[in-house]
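Hi there,

I know you've been waiting on this one. I reran it after we fixed the sequence typo, so this is the corrected version. Both the input and the resulting structure follow.
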Amino acid sequence: MRVLARFAGPNGEISVVEEIATGARFYYEGGVDQSYVLAGGEAGHDYIRLMAALLVNGGDVLLLGCGGGALAGILHRRGRSVTVVDVNPISFELARVFFWMPHNIECITGNMCEFVRAETRTFDAIGIDVGGPYFSYEKVLEPATIACVRGILRDGGRIAINISCEASDDPVPPRIADIFKAEGLDVWMFKENTNGAAEANAVILASAHSEEPPALAAMAEHSGSLARLST
């Protein structure tokens, strides 16, 4: 491994580290893994590939959170119009310079809660992948903000939300999912196979249409377990 760059970030030191044998790169902030991107720009994390599969049918996609820009790059290369919002403008430059994110993706610096409250455009698909040191999902993804996210989702659209879990039975993802369910959405949860690891990711899918279980189950076969929240 070799360090390509170090920067002062709002939540601690940001470092970009490259795996010499493969060219894959990692983005750490305050010691927390923010992104893992394979050489050329494809996502290294399964949960990012899952989110891309869930969002790719949308023509206009809003992504709240940038990181290394792998999700934005995947969707852009598949012909989607992508807008990325992140509170830290450094993320955009890191994603472009070190993680192969295309330069013509629209990038907006701003707080995601303030953005969704003020935004007048609507989107076919919305991805939420925010986090980092000292981050509270329940403080940020509270009911008023989720209602605003729902308000800018077009009829029939999808929202995919990544939650980094501290344990396999972390209660936060179900609580966040319940708030989306209260917005009248069809809500499902993918839980990553931990293979004994202490931390894992849960991806919540909240749809403005009724999902087909076999299609989602096929995705879960490669990404982890799948459950539907009871209505």
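Quick highlight: The chain has a mean pLDDT of 91.

Best,
R. S.
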